[in-house]
Amino acid sequence: AQKITQTQPGMFVQEKEAVTLDCTYDTSDQSYGLFWYKQPSSGEMIFLIYQGSYDEQNATEGRYSLNFQKARKSANLVISASQLGDSAMYFCAMREVNAGGTSYGKLTFGQGTILTVHP
Amino acid sequence: DAGITQSPRHKVTETGTPVTLRCHQTENHRYMYWYRQDPGHGLRLIHYSYGVKDTDKGEVSDGYSVSRSKTEDFLLTLESATSSQTSVYFCAIGGSGRSETQYFGPGTRLLVL
Fold first, then answer.
1. Of A58, A105, B24, B40, which one has the fewest beta carbons inside 10 Å?
2. How high is the pLDDT of residue B101?
């Protein structure tokens, strides 16, 4: 069974500094996808970034980058130049992909990390 | 933004009553999902659908049933609500392809007294 672990219940960062949110995963599958979502206090789930298990480059989306270390089964989110609006809950999630390249898309989520950005 | 709406957005009900939550999408996507969010657990999959009338159970399906008679609508029913089903419920669409992103609706807050 797949499992996602986020070991940091809460993190604090100063505005304009970079912060890393940890995510480790456990799966026996060779093909899988890793996602990060942001949930602000308003409650919606916002997609941030995706990394495929066979992608050779680490994913980047603007100020977000994913530090993917396959051998260590980690997929940490790095937020550069933090902004006050980055204060939110962040979830790491994994999707199993079958050998045919498709799946039913089911996601397994970690418990989340609450990020607080201080001015 | 993906066209996903959920209704109702908030509901208070009593133990033992049936409750139906609706998810409506305008993206014509084949795959739809229901998750629940609880403190300390992140989001957990309740049921999912991979086409009209095609549904299957997720991780926490006990006490829930679903139906999908049209591509755009995915209904989640609590046959007899219990206090343990107090939660925030999210509908999602998409995500079947290798890198396809899954998009979420705004959520429904359900309180079972």
1. B40
2. 85
Residue in the block written with tokens 């990390």: A113
Asked if the model's pLDDT at residue B28 lies above 80, the reply is yes
* Inter-chain CB proximity A4 and B90 less than 8 Å: no
Q: How many CB pairs under 8 A join A and B?
A: 72
CA B33 to chain A, closest CA, distance in angstroms equals 8
**What gap in Å lies between CA B100 and CA A105, rounded to an integer?**
8
Rounded-to-integer distance, Cα A34 and Cα A91, Å: 11
Residues of A with CB under 8 A from a CB of B: 4, 31, 33, 35, 37, 43-45, 47, 50, 52, 91, 93, 95, 97, 101-112
A88-99: burial string, b at 16+ Cβ within 10 Å, e else:
bbbbbbbbbbee
Q: What is the DSSP string of A73-115?
A: TEEEEEE-S--GGG-EEEEEEEEE--TTSB----EEE---EEE
* pLDDT tens digit sequence for A13-24: 999 999 999 999
Distance from CA of B52 to the nearest CA of A (A): 14
- Chain B residue with Cα closest to A47: B103
CB contact under 8 Å between B101 and A91, yes or no, is no
Predicted confidence at residue B99, as pLDDT, reads: 63
Q: What is residue B84's three-state secondary structure?
A: helix
Instruction: Give the least confident one: A43-47, A95-99, B43-47.
Output: A95-99
